[in-house]
Amino acid sequence: xxxxxxxxxxxxxxxxxxxxxxxxxxxxxxxxxxKSPRNVSIEQAxxxxxxxxxxxxVVGLFVDPEDxxxxxxxxxxxxxxxxxxxxxxPARVADIRAAHGLEVWKAIGVRKTQDLEAAQPFxxxxxxxxxxxxxxxxxxxxxxxxxxxxWGLMQGWxxxxxxxxxxxxxxxxxxxxxxxxxxxxxxxxxxxxxxxGMKDMAKIAAFCRAALG
Length: 213
Prior knowledge:
With 213 residues, this protein is α/β, with parallel strands linked by helices. Helix content is 31%, strand content 22%. The chain is globular, with a radius of gyration of 16 Å.
């Protein structure tokens, strides 16, 4: 069995990137969303992406991005994957994928079984689905909230696309989450932090160790 995909999201320092790489993370995530405590400027992101380039795949997280933002980020930041974490419709996701020629992940919020069905319309538009815990009504943040999905919802579910599991994962529960859901890719942000936006190097190491089994 191949090693799992492990993404550490919301990184903002070279120290945290080095910790993720040393722990065998396969993907690092840079957040381009001003309301997030993990938001990075284009200048910051460019330096961080260059630091990680060739050692992990670099994912840019966007929330309902306008074309101008995507273009300005792409002009300076060497990204491998675009992660869309807003209310982007399948047609918009397909347009972004075609315009940029990069792998595209679409995040879908999950609270009940029916929410998993929302992945189906993205067949042919997105490369992968990222299932995250659906935030409370009125929340300013679409992810990174620390809420977790009821993993039992995914037992036996036939996914229409390759997928990753996010939402409330941490070093203590990621192995159980992967076992129950069958996930071969996991994404963590708040679960490896000491405070919002502040990554904990020991937690990053422990998370990757647990995910790798």
